[in-house]
Amino acid sequence: MSSARLASFRRLLAAALGTQYYRPWLEAAGLHTPQLIQALDSIEPALERFPPLKPEAFLMHREQFHNPAAPPPPPAQLFYPYRTMPRTAVLAEQFRSRRRLRVFPNGLGRRLVWFRPEAIAGPLAKLCKLAELVESGALKLRPLRDAVIVLTRIDQPPLSDADRERLWRCFQVPIYQQLLGFSGELLAWECEAHEGLHIVTDDALFETQPIQGEPRVLATSLVDLVHPLIR
Predict the structure, then answer these.
(1) What is the pLDDT, as a whole number, of residue 216?
(2) What are phi and psi of 202, to 5 degrees?
(3) Nearest-CA neighbor of 140 among 149, 130, 150?
(4) Phi–psi pair at 211, nearest 5 degrees
(5) Contact 94, 124 (CB under 8 A)
(6) Residues with Cβ < 8 Å from 182, sequence gap 6 or more?
(7) pLDDT tens digits for range 133-157
(8) What would the 3-class secondary structure string for the chain be?
């Protein structure tokens, strides 16, 4: 276990101490002061003191997970899986436009066509809608040259083979998946080998736990201190 990872976990627990939801759990775990949190020397035993969180609990009661002491997070940065980033369109909020990257959070129209993207990133639903518009001829998008990046939030199912094939048939470029936290932070990404996801080890923790006889992956972002989510 790296010292940087342990330090990030301590910061996450300190942030969670400022939330309505996690303060009782931290008190029950004997981690009710910053000093006790700083004394932690291992992640796993502390992590197991928290129950797995249902995503709907966060989505329906987001205010209970808010840490008012944390500064607003910076806009998310899109990670490009290989080479230099080409001209890329992002069909999602939380990202910031820059020279070769343009954000189109609210539409699939003429502005996207005028940008002439060489790669496109976005949630699966928006990418499938874009594919539908392109295939029907309703949107005259220039053929992509580099990649399609599917941005999957941690509460969403992974990209299926059928959806990957659908996007490939339309765009004819490699399809990559990236796993994001609720604030858009990168937790895991797919490379050119297409043999699973690479975990961003300093920024995320992943566990596999059987729930009702089925394996379930639990994710913890170590970098979202505004809305800290554990497991």
Answers:
(1) 77
(2) -80, -10
(3) 130
(4) -130, 115
(5) no
(6) 58, 153, 154, 155, 221, 224, 227, 229
(7) 999 999 899 999 999 999 999 888 8
(8) CCHHHHHHHHHHHHHHCCCCCHHHHHHHCCCCCHHHHHCCCCCHHHHCCCCCCCHHHHHHCHHHHCCCCCCCCCCECCCCCCCCCCCEEECCCCECCECCEEECCCCCCHHHHHHCCCEEEECHHHHHHHHHHHHHCCCCCCCCCCEEEEEEECCCCCCCHHHHHHHHHHHCCCEEEEEECCCCCEEEEECCCCCCEEECCCCEEEEEEEECCEEEEEEEECCCCCCCCCC
The pTM score is 0.86
* Nearest 10 degrees: Cα torsion 99, 108, 62, 57: -130
Under 8 Å between Cβ of 186 and 180: yes
CA dist., res. 127 & res. 132, Å (int): 9
CB 88 within 8 A of CB 145: no
Read off φ and ψ for residue 98, nearest 5 degrees: -145, -165
Residues 159, 124 contacting (CB under 8 angstroms): yes
**Which residues does the chain have with pLDDT short of 70?**
1, 211
The β-bridge partners of 190 are 197
Q: Which residues contact 25 (CB under 8 A, 6 or more apart)?
A: 49, 50, 51
